[in-house]
Amino acid sequence: MSVMQTNSSQWSRIIFAVLISWVLVTSHTVQADSTTPEVSGKSIGEWSVKWWRWSLSIPAANNPMLDNSGAFCNVRQQGPVWFLTGVFFGGSAERHCTIPHGKSILFPIANAFWINSALDDPNNTESDYRRLASESLPAPVGSDLEATLNGKSIVFNPDTPIVRSQSPVFTVRFPADNVFGLDPDLLTGFPIVSDGFWVMLPPLARGSHVLHFRAALAQDVTYYLTIR
Predict the structure, then answer these.
(1) pLDDT, tens digit, 9 for 90 and up, residues 170-192
(2) Centroid of chain to Cα 198
């Protein structure tokens, strides 16, 4: 459905539906962002902004969220934290990814955002963005998820538990070939708030690792990781 055929509320909720991204879960308690330590001087909410800007600014032709092989795993990766994704539109994938040793690894268990675009109410405030972003994550999230590393259930570092975090307000410069296939002028520069469940893993040991995760009716993904 084109943007012109969709009213503002419906269009923004389409954005919600597309952006639900399942990646990883265990039984750890979800904690508020303020209770967790910073990683390289940034909170999980601040790192989530970097994750979104990274993932949404990459053209669809080489976007890691749309590729099943892992060929684009290293696209635009920089700094002390490496970003991993699920399958953007759902389904299965087997990806090979080489990560430099010493990198923390950030990924969303489930996340979404509200973008208050040109088609939305200009009188919406930050509190509206936050409410609408939160409403995009249904209560049953995480009811049937599984993740293993090297065949064993993942146990997270107690200093970096699963965190539900809303981001600061941010904007993204969308490329012409963006993942939504929309005119970037409809998206670029408008205020965004992300809400999601995030994990920041400490660096893995050098060598080969197999990361498998699945979400029922959503995706089933295996990463063959090489840490060098």
Answers:
(1) 999 999 999 999 999 999 999 99
(2) 8
Q: Could you count the other beta carbons within 10 Å of the beta carbon of residue 147?
A: 19
Report the C-alpha gap between 149 and 127 in whole angstroms.
38
* Cβ neighbour number for residue 38 with a 10 Å cutoff: 11
Residue 163, C-beta contacts closer than 8 angstroms, at least 6 positions apart: 30, 31, 32, 33, 36, 44, 197, 198, 199, 200
48 with 160: CB under 8 angstroms?
Answer: no
Backbone angles phi, psi at 149, to 5 degrees: -125, 120
Residue 28 banded pLDDT, cuts 50, 70, 90 = very low
Domain definitions of the chain by residue range: 3-227
Per-residue tokens: 94: 């087997």
| Span 136-153, pLDDT tens digits | 876 555 566 677 778 877
- The dihedral through the CA atoms of 130, 118, 184, 189 has a sign that is negative
Q: What is the b/e burial string over 52-68, where b = at least 16 CB atoms within 10 angstroms of the residue's CB? A: bbbbbbbebeebbbbbe
Sheet with strand 31-32: strands edge to edge:
31-32, 163-166, 192-201, 104-115, 81-83
Q: Whole-structure pTM over 0.70, yes or no?
A: yes
In the chain, what's the furthest Cα-to-Cα distance?
52
